[in-house]
Amino acid sequence: MTGAYCRYSLSYFNLFTRFSHLFLMENLLATSPETRPQPLNSPAATPVLRLTNIEKVYQTKTIETVALNQVNLTINRGEFVSIMGPSGCGKSTLLSLMGLLDEPTSGTIEVDGRPVTAYSDRELAGLRNLKIGFVFQSYHLINDLSVVDNVEVPLLYRKGMSGKERRQRALTALDKVGLSARTGHFPGQLSGGQRQRVAIARALAGGPEIILADEPTGNLDSVMGEEIMDLLLALNRQEGVTVVMVTHDEQQALKTERVIRFFDGSQVS
Ligand SMILES: Nc1ncnc2c1ncn2[C@@H]1O[C@H](COP(=O)(O)OP(=O)(O)O)[C@@H](O)[C@H]1O
Ligand SMILES: [Mg+2]
Q1: Residue 177's CB: how many other CB atoms inside 10 A?
Q2: CB 202 within 8 A of CB 150
Q3: pLDDT above 90 covers what percent of the chain?
Q4: Which of 59, 62, 63, 65 for a ligand 1 pocket mutation test, highest count of atoms within 8 Å of Cβ?
Q5: 109, β-bridge pairs
Q6: What is the average per-residue pLDDT within 19-33?
Q7: Residue 44: its pLDDT value, please?
Q8: Which residues on neighbouring strands pair with residue 114, listed in sequence order?
Q9: How many angstroms separate the CA atoms of 115 and 205, rounded?
């Protein structure tokens, strides 16, 4: 076994132990055959995600929080939608439900027209890995994995995908975000904007239908934030990826097709 291989193994071990909150559910491997996203020539109003009468209540020992209250929302294929609203109004909760990372207290979530209510954790993990890419405010990269290894992480859960194909997909995704010259760098050697590009490449590598981005420019200065916004817009327009983005930035939101505003767990416009 080569030293490099040992290092990978160790790093992946680190990944599981330190970032289990992010990836644990993904170890339930996708069992369905892999499919690329549909081309964008399908009719504009094909629902890719539909939320019906969604309620999410968080119950702790002392307090019950209604994070989402009777939310009805449809995201169509190819759309770029912004979600706006004050802190604590339920935006991240909404994204975690859309991303099948959490279950609603009541209501129905449909992905590509199919309700996921009855899906097992394993099936949900498979669907999530196949169709959804996540981008977070603080990047959530693994510091001791190189850029290309970070991008490969979600592909490790694709049953039957060879190491060669993983690497090829990661390099293609890095090329799309303009980071071909940084594949061997480590996150600590990159600017915030570059780190977010790596995170976007990681989200793209699996060929998702949907990218869910939770305040993706929240940690960036305005110039880098604009770069990331332009990249997401380009991916939406050129690659046909559906994007749902939480943002506090009105200017960014105005660049997207639709702005959905939340207040206190409810959609207000
Ligand atoms: N895991 C949790 N347990 C208990 N309460 C939570 C949890 N996650 C979020 N909340 C509460 O739900 C509400 C919505 O939170 P969140 O979706 O993170 O809002 P936003 O992203 O709009 O700032 C807040 O009142 C928050 O405190
Ligand atoms: Mg939030």
Answers
A1: 23
A2: yes
A3: 82
A4: 65
A5: 51
A6: 38
A7: 55
A8: 111
A9: 26
Average pLDDT, the chain: 87
Q: Would you say the CB of residue 17 lies under 6 angstroms from ligand 1?
A: no
pLDDT (0 to 100) of residue 105: 97
| pTM for this prediction | 0.86
DSSP structure string for 62-89? S-EEEEEEEEEEEEETT-EEEEE--TTS
C-alpha 42/C-alpha 79 separation (Å) is 12
Phi, psi of 50 (to 5 degrees): -135, 125
Residue with CA nearest ligand 1 atom 17:
90
106-131: pLDDT as tens digits: 999 999 999 998 999 999 999 999 99
All structural domains of the chain, each given as residue ranges with its CATH number in brackets, are 3-28+77-85+121-267 (3.40.50.300)
| CA–CA separation, 132 and 193 (whole Å) | 22
What integer pLDDT is reported at residue 13 of this predicted model? 40
Of all protein residues, the one whose alpha carbon is nearest to atom 20 of ligand 1 is: 88
How many angstroms separate the alpha carbon of residue 132 from the centre of ligand 2?
A: 18
Which ligand neighbours the alpha carbon of 265 most closely?
Answer: 1
Looking at the DSSP bridge assignments, the partners of residue 83 are 246, 260
Q: Which residue is closest in CA terms to ligand 1's atom 3?
A: 58
CA 257 – CA 80 distance, rounded (Å): 6
- Could you give phi then psi for residue 259, rounded to 5 degrees? -115, 125
Note the pLDDT of residue 37. Answer: 42
The Cα 160–Cα 212 span in angstroms is 26
User: Residue 45 has what pLDDT?
Assistant: 83
